[in-house]
Amino acid sequence: MSEALEILKSCDAFLEGHFLLSSGRHSSAYCQMAYLQQYPDRCAEVMKTVADKVKEMDVDVIVGPALKRFAIHPGEKCLIAEDVVTTGISSLETKRVIEENGGICVGITCVVDRTKPEAPSPI
To answer: What is the pLDDT of residues 7-27, one digit of tens each?
Structure first.
């Protein structure tokens, strides 16, 4: 078991059972990231890999699906950040809004990637 999964389980953020996801898919596992985020030290451990990679990137702005809370300026290099990605639909919508505002989507990062290999990429 990965260290990140162990941490998720230790704060009850990783649940096992039967779940109907908001995407309409069914799953035997579910990540409730809010449970992880209430423990800053554990959250920092799980996010370290993501943070280290983001530090290496040439990014101006990090945005999420709640894009209406952010201002995107023409030419800004944007990274989409999500906690869990299942279908990628919200990321694709976020990319569309970034581009409509003149931004450049340079990629997406997430803590949990549930996408299938054939899922469309936002970049």
So the answer is: 999 999 999 999 888 778 888
